[in-house]
# Entry
Amino acid sequence: MNFPSPLLAALLLAAPATLQAAATKPPNILFIMADDHAAHAISAYGSRVNSTPNIDRLATEGMRFDRMFAVNSICTPSRASILTGKYSHLNGVPVFNRFDGSQPTVAKYLQAAGYYTGMVGKWHLESDPTGFDKWTILPGQGDYFNPAFLQAGGRRVITGYVTDIITDLSIEFLENRPRDQPFFLMCHHKAPHRNWQPDAKHKAMFADKLIPEPDTLRDDGSSRGDAIHECTQKVLENLSSNDTKGPPPAGLTGDALLKWKYQRYMQDYLACVQSVDDNVGRLLEYLDKSGLAENTIVIYTSDQGFFLGDHGLFDKRFMYEESIRMPFLVRWPGVVKPGSVQPAMGINVDFAPTFMQAAGLPVPADMQGHSLLPLLHGERPADWRTSWYYRYYHDPGDHNTRAHYGLRTETHKLIYFWKIDQWEMYDLAKDPAELHNVYQDPAQADTVAKLKTELFRLKKELKDDDQFANEQPGSKPPAVKPRQAK
Ligand SMILES: [Ca+2]
# Structure
């Protein structure tokens, strides 16, 4: 793939000095992504439930994004959005669809520009990876213990614990890389995905630990519509004996059962996270020892957030904050100010444009995200987004969660469960925990109307004309015109 030189020249003319330096000596990019690791289980994000000293290093030595979000909060679609810089309806992966590997991806662009590209760990896009010089992936969800891996040469089983092995393979990729090329490595952990199987060392750390409960564990959802009540993501009702690694003690019911299930869930979830944290430490140590740290952008993120008992739930999918919010920490020595915090709203379709621009390449016009580079430089462009569009399709899916789409602004969130024609609206400034759906409040009518106008403007701008509205059997096409505020 060739990039027209006038485009590159124009980009360089407009770019800050550091970008020009990047173009002459492109930075390496190490992208570490966990699966279902909520920001509120990272101490740099103020976790009340655990401590993650190694991941925290990236916040101390780099930038912490406080408002980074997934545009479709579920594993496979988030991965497709990250690779393509596009929303689900344009990259063909709204649910668990097979990723069409013939389409352009950031890996392909970087490879064509001279990067040595690698993909290790959870892929979950069904088709074989394209655009990578080397790839070693878990088949589907993969196993926690003694996992099989797929690579261009075939399949092999590796003895050990998956998080350790993915780190070993990542270090092996770095050790064997050509020294005359920059690298782009996607290191994708399986952990801490359900059903949360920690290794013995980390399991022991949490076995007897009492984990603080979230404030909203007993949220009854009384002001919400039907969706949260119909879903099967509830800690009390839907965590199985498989999840809790055994049945609850006999006779346990009601709140006592809720407490027990929450503890069992979180003990294993956090033990899996602790292994991820140790392994991030191993990778950072490798970068230090090999002299790579200085010219390597290191990112830590997760494919989406997760409910850690918040609103009585586990899993993700819903457009509520704990689900859509991704941790996003970036260390880039000499460019990103250590210990800085970024409040601007980013979304996962921004990642691909960011990697392009960091590598000194023009951002392809069909990518829908915006490069985060100005934000990484500590400059917020005057026209940076103040709202963004979300859409979840997997209905009924594994957790009977209704399809919905919506808008999040700096201060409000509007959600439309279109199959059941129900709206929810939250004032995030007054109600950050989203406990009060004020959609029906007459005092909010003007705000609701404005949010709807913006929602449908964005939907149009992003070319979401409901092409996947009937993705699931039994779906009905959604209303595509703004409804008047009631
Ligand atoms: Ca996930």
